[in-house]
Amino acid sequence: MESTNKCLKEWNATIESLGDGKQTILIRNYRTNVTEFLLYPTVSYALKDDYLDSFQIKNQIFAKKNALPEKKGDKVLIKYFASLERIVEKPVTRIPSDKHYIWTRDHVKNYMTGKNVYIWILRVYKLKEPYWAEPTTGAIRYANLKEEVSLDGIKPVLNDSIFAKIIEHFY
Fold first, then answer.
1. Which InterPro entries match (predicted)?
2. Which is it for strands 75-91 and 142-150: parallel, antiparallel or unpaired?
3. Shortest CA distance to 126 belongs to which of 108, 100, 151, 93?
């Protein structure tokens, strides 16, 4: 894939956590067939007074610093691309340890609605050239940009051996 316009919308602090290598997973109520996407930053959670309570104490400064995406007018900066390497299904009672994400365990549990959770293991890449994206309309989870974003020169956030260890952990 040389370029894409497909995006996954996600909290900016979570995107920056993925881009910083602090986490490599997303925990969802659903599976997906979309396996490659740009990470499009959102801010809805940061509009709540108590949003920092959703993050582990050790990650609250990081979350506060990264609550809002970089903006230029109404455009947001997209800096990362992700490839969904695996989806692991587990009972909601077996949510992974909070060492794998920046939220609190209670936040994750409260977010889950079914008997099972889907752990998305992502390989995250930094774009060679960040992209200023127009606001997207419609879907809450996914969006398509008006134009394609180049994936030439993307670099993985984590090296191959570190990423391989993470994948092994979930099997």
1. DUF1802
2. unpaired
3. 151
